[in-house]
Design brief:
heterodimer, A: 261 residues, alpha/beta, Rossmann fold, 2 domains, two-stranded antiparallel ribbon, globular, B: 378 residues, alpha+beta, Butyryl-Coa Dehydrogenase, subunit A, domain 1, Butyryl-CoA Dehydrogenase, subunit A, domain 2, Butyryl-CoA Dehydrogenase, subunit A, domain 3, 4-stranded antiparallel β-sheet, 10 helices, 10 strands, binds flavin-adenine dinucleotide
Chain lengths: 261, 378
């Protein structure tokens, strides 16, 4: 079974996000970057399928030079090879143009199954996996917490409001991973040492038959106008007095001043 | 030698950091308070290959150098010194058996140790022989095709939980240090038992115990190296162990500094964060500077060892400086936390208690100074 996993490198969840005035993206100074946590579930699932049924796992990421680190980490976990869409033309994209770049690259590859995280924790678009499926003309199941493979098809359990839904889909398909799908392994020491010997191929737009203006910022359908930090929380206010009067006063303030009730 | 970690070392560091944050940090404080040893942590470390870092690949290890090993030790020590010391205690018998053992000994013991199926321990210290290790009294008398051991060792890390003990005993007492030999003794051998479990000031998640030999018969194949090589083997082990303890001390110190910086920014007195006071800033600056110097010294010692150069005196300097730094930095961290630092609700008092033991084990810091001076004056 040939499995492709979409991987995005994102700022660590512990990062104290900062936006410099006038900038339209977060500042990367002093930020540590990690594999998007939902993509880790996708990688783990791919590795488990490979271990159970044989096959190989290819990671693919569109991103700056540094994104190669995320791919190496995935290789250290046990993936076999990686493709890095690494060119300025691929950068600054939105969910659409990123999906275009990935789908174009995937079209040139062999696959039975595509896995990815249900969302990336930086921009939280929840879109790329599903868009890739659409662009490739294959089915998808999103927000999956359990996956079973049978001959030529997959049975996926997905979270829906208040319960779960079980979906059967023919393969190839895109499955987007939700927390709970599995517990991702740590890269082992041996895995880390082997990772540097595994193929990590860098590709330019021409390599994937993409015109530079259909990927990255040029191909984006959305434009970020401004990016600002949320306003600092104002200090709280203490209402003094006897509890009974104070409670009345608080209700009044909530209604008239804060307008929340 | 470069000041920068290699790509693999950095990748390993990040993995160990994540492992330590997720698997060790949540249980470290309670394990310390209740003096609980967590065998499963060592199994998890083994799963990702960290118990056999320096062991050759043919025996299941990763065959990596000390420069890489110390990166792992420091990361783990940031969250739990007991686990970092445990890693060192697991590593020592492996590198000693690899270097001095026979082919049969390597085949028999290295894979179980590097894979964590068995835990190792290193037994040198005795009630009457601490710093003056060569005055040890435990005897190993030739008898038929084996040896009979008699004597007591104290303060043995992982005593009682380990399976394989590298034990120093005298085969020829009249020859002093040259009469010491080194043996592998397996748990369960008749005549081998465990005594008092020490109640400690810190490092409580790491069991420290007395081990006792009473007419304990071991086969001839238990001898590591030649008869009379024991003291040399022990000293070589300690040279390497000192690099480990130095790296662990750097981890402890770094953890204390991280806590102190965080706290100093949050805690307000006189209407401003205490970090705005120069008195606090200078303390933080000194802490950061000595930690950096200590780390570089530890790395230099590892580099010298890895490149086959004389490193004993630099390992002693690294151990001395890093552990004194850990003591100073953790004490200052408690100071920065004020009264809260003295309370168990915050991690810095635990780090301070942890730092203390690093000045004692693997040769006290007085002994390190002796080693350094002897090298200068020879
Ligand atoms: C938690 C813990 C774990 C340990 N684990 C192990 C283990 O796994 N295996 C093992 O074999 N041992 C272990 N030890 C023992 C440790 O190595 C010894 O405690 C250490 O070597 C000091 O010996 P001592 O305690 O007998 O102190 P002593 O040697 O009695 O020293 C007392 C004091 O005198 C000083 N001193 C001694 N000689 C001189 C001198 N010539 N000049 C100046 N000052 C001197 C010392 O520096 C110290 O300050 C452990 C100890 C501890 C606390």
């Amino acid at each position: 079974m040939k499995i492709i996993v979409l991987v995005k490198q994102v700022p660590d969840t512990e990062t104290k996000v900062q936006v410099k005035p006038g900038e339209k993206a977060i500042s990367t100074d002093g930020v540590t970057f990690v594999i998007n946590p939902y993509d880790e579930y996708a990688i783990e699932e791919a590795l488990r399928i490979k271990e159970a049924k044989g096959g190989d796992v290819t990671l693919i990421s569109a991103g700056w030079d540094k994104a190669a680190e995320a791919l190496r980490t995935g290789l250290a976990m046990g993936a076999d090879k990686a493709v890095h869409l690494n060119d300025p033309a691929f950068l600054g994209g939105d969910a659409h143009s990123t999906a275009v770049a990935l789908a174009k690259a995937i079209k040139k590859m062999e696959y039975d199954l595509i896995l990815c995280g249900k969302q990336a924790i930086d921009y939280d678009n929840h879109q790329v996996g599903v868009r890739v499926a659409e662009l490739l003309g294959i089915p998808h199941v999103a927000v999956v917490t359990k996956l079973e493979l049978q001959d030529g098809k997959a049975v996926a359990h997905r979270e829906v409001e208040g319960g779960s839904e079980i979906v059967e889909t023919p393969l190839p398909a895109v499955i987007t991973a939700q927390k709970g799908l599995n517990e991702p392994r740590y890269a082992s020491l041996k895995g880390i040492m082997q990772a540097k010997k595994k193929p990590l191929e860098a590709k330019k737009p021409a390599d994937v038959d993409a015109a530079p203006n259909e990927v990255g910022q040029a191909g984006a359908k959305t434009t970020v106008l401004t990016m600002t930090m949320p306003p600092e929380r104002a200090a709280g206010r203490v209402v003094e007095g006897e509890p009974e009067d104070a409670a009345k006063q608080v209700v009044k303030l909530l209604r008239e001043e804060a307008k929340v009730i | 030698m470069s000041f920068q970690l290699t790509e693999e070392q950095e990748s390993l560091r990040r993995t160990v950091q994540k492992f330590a944050e997720k698997e060790i940090a949540p249980i470290a404080a309670e394990a310390e308070e209740k003096a609980e040893f967590h065998r499963e942590i060592f199994e998890k470390l083994a799963d990702i290959g960290l118990l056999g870092i320096a062991c050759p690949e043919e025996y299941g290890g990763a065959g990596l150098d000390y420069s890489t090993y110390i990166v792992v030790v420091e990361e783990i020590a940031k969250h739990c010194l007991a686990t970092a010391v445990g890693l060192g205690v697991q590593n020592l018998p492996q590198i000693m058996i690899d270097r001095f053992g026979t082919k049969e000994q390597k085949e028999k013991y290295l894979s179980p140790l590097s894979s964590g199926k068995k835990l190792g321990a290193f037994a040198l210290t005795e009630p009457g022989a601490g710093s003056d290790a060569s005055s040890l009294k435990t005897s190993a008398v030739r008898d038929g095709d084996g040896y009979v051991l008699n004597g007591t060792k104290v303060f043995i890390t992982h005593g009682g939980v380990a399976d394989i003990y590298l034990v120093m005993a005298k085969t020829q007492p009249e020859k002093g240090a040259h009469g010491i030999s080194s043996f592998i003794v397996e748990d369960g051998t008749p005549g081998f038992s465990f005594g008092k479990v020490e109640k400690k000031m810190g490092l409580r998640a790491s069991p420290t115990r007395e081990i006792i030999f009473e007419d304990c018969r071991i086969p001839r194949e238990s001898l590591v190296g030649k008869e009379g090589d024991g003291f040399k083997i022990a000293m070589i082990a300690l040279d390497s162990g000192r690099i480990t303890i130095g790296a662990a001390a750097v981890g402890v110190a770094q953890a204390a500094l991280n806590e102190a910086v965080k706290y100093a920014k949050q805690r307000e007195q006189f209407g401003q964060p205490i970090a705005s006071f120069q008195g606090i800033q200078f303390m933080l600056a000194d802490m950061a500077t000595s930690i950096r110097a200590a780390r570089n010294l530890v790395r230099e010692a590892a580099y010298l060892k890895d490149s086959g150069q004389a490193f004993s005196h630099v390992a002693a300097m690294a151990k001395l400086y890093a552990t004194d730094t850990a003591m100073k930095v953790t004490t200052d961290a408690v100071q920065i936390f004020g009264g809260y630092g003295y309370m168990q609700d915050y991690p810095v008092e635990r780090l301070m208690r942890a730092a203390k033991v690093t000045q004692i084990v693997e040769g006290t810091n007085q002994i390190q100074r002796m080693v350094i001076a002897r090298n200068l004056l020879k």
